Amino acid sequence: MRVLKKLNPVALAGLMAIGIAAQANPLQAQSTEVLTVAGGCFWCVESDFESVDGVIEAVSGYTGGRTENPTYKDVSRGGSGHYEAVQITFDPAKVSRERLLELFFRSVDPTDDGGQFCDRGESYRTAVFVSDAAEEALAGQVKAEAQQALGQKIVTPVLQAGTFYEAEDYHQDYYKGDSLVFTRFGPKRQAAAYKRYRVACGRDQRVVQLWGDAAPFAGGH
Fold first, then answer.
1. Could you read off the pLDDT of 49-98 as tens digits, one per residue?
2. What are the φ/ψ torsions at residue 80 (nearest 5 degrees)?
3. pLDDT computed for residue 214 by the predictor
């Protein structure tokens, strides 16, 4: 306090302004938003959106159901009500929520209410999860625009967000993993197994069939 008393009012005001700016800038730098979507296999959705400039990370998980702390087995066998979903953390100064929603609708088959591509069942359905009225209105708007562009009915629902449970560690970044896994094609590294699965499941083929040149991630990641 004795040091501050010796400063004149102008100098003191300057120091206070510098202190406030120093505190504000880190907060601005850390400003992020979250979008949660379900688009079939979460490995593929995670891979797609981590390639988007402005996306900080995409985390695979489960949401929308009744079972608390579900495991992959709980969700994949059905009855939990959960979707395989991905929580996308992004910098809104680099990419907007609206743009991410546009990319999402054009990266799935939103006309299919029974699953996605070769993956069938409730956990593989598509959905957009929202946290408030503004997010709901925006998702509805982008959905309507996508439906008009596609010329077919989009059945992907816009749902209220609930608890998001992160999937097991081995599901995270599966598309670029180096662990050895056993597949029906024999033992392969995760990244190779993922690419083989994506092609065999027909994801990109169907998306291109629906969206043509507007398909943003065709070719796989």
1. 999 999 999 999 999 999 999 999 999 999 999 999 999 999 999 999 99
2. -85, -20
3. 96
Neighbours of 35 (CB within 10 A): 24
Tell me what the pLDDT averaged over the chain comes to: 88
- Domain membership of residue 205 (yes or no) is no
Query: CA angle at residue 207 from 176 to 168, to 5 degrees?
Result: 35
| 76: β partners | none
Domain span at residue 113? 31-172
Q: Is residue 97 part of a domain?
A: yes
- List, for residues 132-165, the tens digit of each pLDDT value: 999 999 999 999 999 999 999 999 999 999 999 9
Q: Among all residues, which ones are annotated catalytic?
A: 41
Q: Is residue 101 part of a domain?
A: yes
In the chain, how many domains are there? 1
Q: What predicted TM-score, i.e. pTM, was given to this entire model?
A: 0.84
> 199, 173, 171, 172: which is closest to 185 by C-alpha?
199
Can you list the alpha helix ranges (DSSP code H) found in 69-182? 72-76, 97-105, 133-150
- Position 180 in a domain: no
Q: How many CA atoms lie within 13 A of 218 on its CB side?
A: 15
CATH, residue 110:
3.30.1060.10
